[in-house]
Write a structure and sequence with these properties.
With 82 residues, this protein is mostly helical. The protein has a domain of 37 residues. Helices cover 65% and strands 0% of the residues. The longest helix has 21 residues. It is elongated, with a radius of gyration of 22 Å. The protein starts with 11 loop residues before the first helix and ends with a helix.
Amino acid sequence: MTAKRLKRPRDPVQLGKLVGDILTGQIEDRQATPEGRATDAVEFARKGGLKGGKARAKALTPKQRTEIARLAAEARWKKSNR
């Protein structure tokens, strides 16, 4: 699992200082992963989430897919006709 980036401050002056510090190598742009976090579990959950939609679509019958698509189309048309 990759480390997360530092949170960027909203204040422009503080943001400028942070960017300057990163560019000059005074601080590292990435934070270390917290020790209490189960990185294996996070990676496992992400893998499941990436294939979840495809697996669900494969399990649906053509009639179910048609109904879902019809409801989605109705929602899009309702939204665009406001």
